Amino acid sequence: MIFDTGLSSAMEITVNVMMIVLTVALLMAFFRLVKGPTLPDRVVALDLVAAIAVAIFAVYAVVVDQPVFIDAAIVLALIIFLGTVAFARYTERRGRP
Amino acid sequence: MKSLILQTATRSLVAVMLLFSIFLLLRGHDEPGGGFIGGLVGAAAFALYAIAFDVQSARRMLGIRPQMMIAIGLAMAGGAGIISLLASEPYFAHLWYHTDIPGFGEIHLGTFLLFDIGVFLVVIGVTLLVILTLSEE
């Protein structure tokens, strides 16, 4: 096991599997962010990275048993879509990508 | 850019973001949070409003000019240090005031809170001054 939580073994397996799946998802989204042929691809990939980061924060809060990480997840979830909206406005103003 | 979806979502999101920024400000006393991060979340709420509607309505919602906000915030943050000078303590020494509110419990008020509200106002003012000026270009 990668993370030793003090929780029951079923919970520990769940947390570890979730962390692995989320890490793979983060790497795939990051690949699209770097490679993405057009700007809208990159913007959507950036939004996805933020959503996965919120999920990782939430799982990590369970792993270390610290509710403080949930607040970081709330702040990130509230703020990060603003970047996507600003990107959308910029793309629209600039014309077709 | 006029998007009905964004405008409808913004009306409720701005309220949540402003509430959360005040929550972060007041919680900064003994848990993560504080004036700086609270101010950033609050400024993000106004910036979202400026994107969804227009800059003029964001300024109208703010009520006072951002420059005025910076001035008030700096005066509060600096004044919090002066209070401790008046009480013949070192500059910026924290003074505490404990009181009991019936039905609410004991609260601890310090000059620290005044300083933090000052930081909150300065951060909102500076961020909005930059964002609103740039989006009017």
Give a quick summary of the entry.
The complex is a heterodimer of chains A (97) and B (137). By secondary structure, chain A is mainly alpha-helical.
Approximate shape of chain A: elongated
- The CATH top-level class label of chain A: Mainly Alpha
Give the domain tally of chain B.
1
Q: Please give the number of β-strands of chain B.
A: 2
Oligomeric organization of the protein chains: heterodimer
How is the biggest beta sheet of chain A arranged?
none
Shape label of chain B: globular
**Which strands sit side by side, in order, in the main sheet of chain B?**
1-2
Please tell me the overall pLDDT of chain B.
86
Helix share bin of chain A: over 70%
Which sequence of SSEs, written as H and E, runs from N to C of chain B?
HHHHEEH
**N-C termini distance of chain B:** 15 Å
- The CA-CA distance between the termini of chain A, in Å, is 45 Å
Helical proportion of chain B, percent range: over 70%
- List unreliable stretches of 5+ residues of chain A: none
Beta fraction of chain A: under 5%
